[in-house]
Amino acid sequence: MKSAVVSDTHGCPSWLPRPARVRLGWALFGWALVLCVMAWPRDAQAYAWMIRHGYTKCDTCHTDPSGGETLNHMGRVQSETLLSTDWGGHDTVTSDAKLLYSLDEPDHWRGGGAVRVMSLYTLKNKEAPSEFRWFPMQMDLYGGADYGFLKFGGSFGLGKIRQGSQYMRAAQVTRTDEGYALLSRSHWVGFDLGNNWLVRLGRLNLPFGVRTSEHTLLVRQSTHTDRESDQQHGAAISYSGGRFRGEGMFVAGNFQIAPDDYRKRGFTGYLEYLLEPNLAVGIDTLILTSGKDADEGRTQRTINHAHGVTARYSPMTQLAVLGELDVLKISGRKLGYAGFATGDYELKQGLHLAATAEVANNGRKEDAEPAPGAGEMTYNLWLTCQWFALTHLDFRADAVLSKGGGKVIEAQAHMYF
What we know:
Elements: H1 18-39, H2 73-83, E1 109-122, E2 131-147, E3 150-161, E4 179-183, E5 187-194, E6 197-204, H3 218-223, E7 232-241, E8 244-253, E9 265-276, E10 279-290, E11 302-316, E12 319-330, E13 336-348, E14 351-361, E15 371-372, E16 375-376, E17 378-390, E18 393-402, E19 407-416
Parallel strand pairs: 15-16
Antiparallel strand pairs: 1-2, 1-19, 2-3, 3-4, 3-5, 5-6, 6-7, 7-8, 8-9, 9-10, 10-11, 11-12, 12-13, 13-14, 14-17, 17-18, 18-19
């Protein structure tokens, strides 16, 4: 089970039990800082393959120095002029790049949000019949403020929790076993130290690996570093200057889950170096420990290690290649590994074809027989078509082929504004 949420599973009546009030307090504290500063009177998703266009640093287009969520002004401009299909042949920025396609943002703050709807069709196999379902995957609002030395960011949203689902639960503010819950994936305050250094405090995306939009990749699951719900509270320091970019985070735990024994603490970070304008290589490391581990089903202290290498390369403008390989060591398991390689080809501006091969073996559990992903290698092959049809609107279809013959067709529509 992915989430370490083992606290009470009350619903959300008009009054909240104490654990829910504590979780709500943490989220509201972060957002109160954001909203207060945004009211102070004063004068897209992360696509690592943007290296094909010479964009090697995520903070060029995002308020998060490692990419994702809220776009800054440059990110909005590039979404229209470089990322999306050019229908009119114009070379200038239009109102389509603005917030809600029409609103000018004040100089010191950025807003936005995203709605993503997913449909899944699982093809029939020997063990189970075919199944089709669809659901809202993301319904978030983003916000950020930049006042020079002080910076703020965060998100609030709704998520539909399915019984037995491994996602979203760790980001819950209100708690439910099934149905809609209030989420806050991130909320932080930052301090610009100058010379390309930034310190942030709050609930943050973990700085590790190649940040992509496919949060269900095996390497993201094995290292617990996706952007869907694996964020943690802590303090991070990032640098982005010259040929280097990197971020390190001291993890204090996810205070939106309880009890404290299940909160993971430690350090994680990455460092990337630009060898050539079209080639970046990096290293990443993660060491997290907890008193108990719901993901592993352990009731004793557990240490999670993940250490590896990353690469991004664009041999030509149309093609970008991304890769990551990590060595894993989890208490109670033998040595393991996880990794992926993606080739993304842009047929025409806005229209992408991609193939991804991924492998994982988290290590055999002690006193257990080898199984796929736990002592034996498991793997998936993704075949992807993604179309950035309009500014801030894209469609994506994936065929996922898994070890053992499993086949899933995924389709999603994504609007961010």
